[in-house]
Amino acid sequence: MSDFKPGLEGVVAFETEIAEPDKDGGSLRYRGVDIEDLIGHVSFGNVWGLLVDGRFGPGLPPAEPFPVPVHSGDIRVDVQSAVTMLAPYWGLSQLIDIDDEQVRRDLARVSVTALSFVAQAARGLGLPAVPQKDIDKAETVVERFMRRWRGEPDPRHVQAVDAYFIAAAEHGLNASTFTTRIAASVGADVAACISAGIGTLSGPLHGGAPTRVLHMIEEVERSGDPVGYVHGVLDRGERLMGFGHRVYHAEDPRARVLRQIARDLGAPRFEVAEALERAALDGLRERKPGRVLATNVEFWSAVVLDFAEVPAHMFTPMFTCARVAGWSAHILEQKRLGRILRPRLRYVGPDARKPQEVEGWS
Ligand code: ACO
């Protein structure tokens, strides 16, 4: 089969008006606007509007009450269950049965509820909920999120989380976005599409990486030996989390932006992270000559989130909050396309045979 592309690598599956990262890492643009011109100028709620509606319009509504499923001990798992439950809880219709306006409204409701759920869960079961009147003092979606979590947040932490949410909001046809588009292509409801994306995002080679990055930084902080640490990881044949990318053949522009944010905000682990980054890039150049393995978004995300006092176990749920924006935009775009996604496999299994020929038949 001449059109066989293992893992769909390099296959262009759709035309999009949302975003597609430049391979050379020059920039990342959301509907044509560079993230460097968004971060610090508008808030994440406006970026949700830009991605989904193509303009800085109404953005996200306030959150509604939401179901609280079992507490599994993993907030990423809990938010995925809560989002899934929104369909029966709110009576959401399946995509094929509703118009674009309704899909957009459902996306906004589910997105903002996912954020509220994560903030509430981050606050923990032990603390009383922040009074609604204090949450309502917030001027932006991210400030609301931080108030629901912390009560009276440090404004610099709000700034850091807003920057992170914008940088991580959208990134073309990555694995979790592809997943949401597959679910949307078959007409599943918005909550099912987003919940599918949350599951895929949890993988350590995708959205689960920054937690591991922070552990790396902490270990180097303890040992004071970034070079020894890097060689140890590579000698064991393991991967340095926060480096390498399937699309970029240069530094990820989000890493560049978040490094600058971490520097400007005076992140406490900035210096150790920079030393580890230098050692990692040298180590990777030496061990993998001919390959471009540069810093990806996860590395500096970990430093920025750490500055905002976000614990490592919250990193994947935080990524989920950011990426609901991109997923929402893609679900709507896929719905408008109205064609199911169904690639094919090349079958290389046994030739036709009888059940008697299969091992274990008796
Ligand atoms: N550390 C060490 N070696 C690496 C790394 C790394 N971070 N990344 C790639 N390599 C090596 C691989 O071992 C492989 O070497 P080999 O051919 O000698 O076996 C070679 O570079 C190519 O690696 P692939 O896995 O083929 O590259 P791919 O494009 O498939 O992977 C990925 C991209 C998954 C991001 C990879 O670079 C990786 O595992 N990085 C660490 C995890 C990480 O940071 N994930 C976050 C990604 S960003 C995001 O999802 C938002």
Task: Give a short summary of the structure.
Its EC number is 2.3.3.16. The protein is built from 15 helices and 2 strands.
Your description of this structure?
Helices cover 54% and strands 1% of the residues. The chain has 15 helices and two strands. A two-stranded antiparallel ribbon has the order 1-2. Helix 3 runs antiparallel to helix 9, helix 7 runs antiparallel to helix 12 and helix 8 crosses helix 15. The longest helix has 24 residues. The mean pLDDT is 93. The site of acetyl coenzyme *A has 17 residues, from helix 14. InterPro entries: Citrate_synth-like_lrg_a-sub, Citrate_synth-like_sm_a-sub, Citrate_synthase, Citrate_synthase_sf.
Structural class estimated from helices and strands: mainly alpha
Helix amount, in percent? 40-55%
In the predicted model, the low-confidence regions spanning at least 5 consecutive residues are none
Name every ligand kind in the structure: acetyl coenzyme *A
Helix count from the secondary structure assignment: 15
The amount of beta strand, in percent, is under 5%
Give the ordered list of helices and strands.
EEHHHHHHHHHHHHHHH
Shape: globular
Mean pLDDT, all residues: 93
* Largest sheet composition: 2 strands, antiparallel
Rg, rounded, reads 21 Å
Record the strand order, biggest sheet. 1-2
